[in-house]
């Protein structure tokens, strides 16, 4: 009986851990920000900071103002920039 209870508690903890929402997922084409009132207020600053790492500008593409949902953004090259001639230096 104790072993069954231990496995049930462990499975419940794993299920709760799987439900957590990552605060930010991005790459060079855009990303998503987990919605919260603070993230909603700072959505342009967060997206601009992430896109600036790749030398790009940002555009907010969708906002779903509910907990557990996301704010989506896209990164794009500024007008007049030729990405084939641009050298972006990144420090790792």
Q: How many beta-strand segments?
A: 4
Query: How many whole angstroms does the radius of gyration measure?
Result: 19 Å
Strand arrangement in the largest pleated sheet? 1-2-4-3
Counting helices, strands and paired strands, the structural category is: alpha+beta
Tell me the span between the first and last alpha carbons.
51 Å
- Say what oligomer this is: single chain
- What is the makeup of the main sheet? 4 strands, antiparallel
Q: Give the H and E element order.
A: HEEHHEE
- Number of helices in the DSSP assignment: 3
Give an overview of the whole structure:
The protein is α+β, with helices and mostly antiparallel strands and 92 residues long. Helix content is 35%, strand content 25%. The chain has helices spanning 2-18, 37-41, 43-52, and strands at 24-27, 30-34, 57-63, 70-76. It has a four-stranded antiparallel β-sheet, covered by helices on one side. The longest helix is centred in the first third of the chain and has 17 residues, at 2-18.
Main attributes?
92 residues; four-stranded antiparallel β-sheet; 35% helix
What order do the helices and strands come in, and which of them pair?
Elements (H helix, E strand, L loop, with lengths): L1 H17 L5 E4 L2 E5 L2 H5 L1 H10 L4 E7 L6 E7 L16
Antiparallel strand pairs: 1-2, 2-4, 3-4
């Amino acid at each position: 009986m104790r072993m069954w209870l231990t496995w049930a508690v462990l499975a419940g903890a794993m299920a709760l851990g799987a439900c957590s929402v990552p605060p930010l997922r991005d790459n060079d084409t855009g990303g998503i920000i987990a919605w919260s009132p603070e993230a909603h207020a700072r959505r342009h600053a967060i997206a601009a900071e992430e896109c600036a790492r790749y030398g790009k500008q940002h555009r907010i593409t969708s906002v779903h103002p509910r907990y557990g949902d996301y704010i989506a953004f896209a990164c794009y090259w500024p007008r007049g920039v030729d990405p084939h001639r641009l050298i972006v230096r990144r420090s790792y």
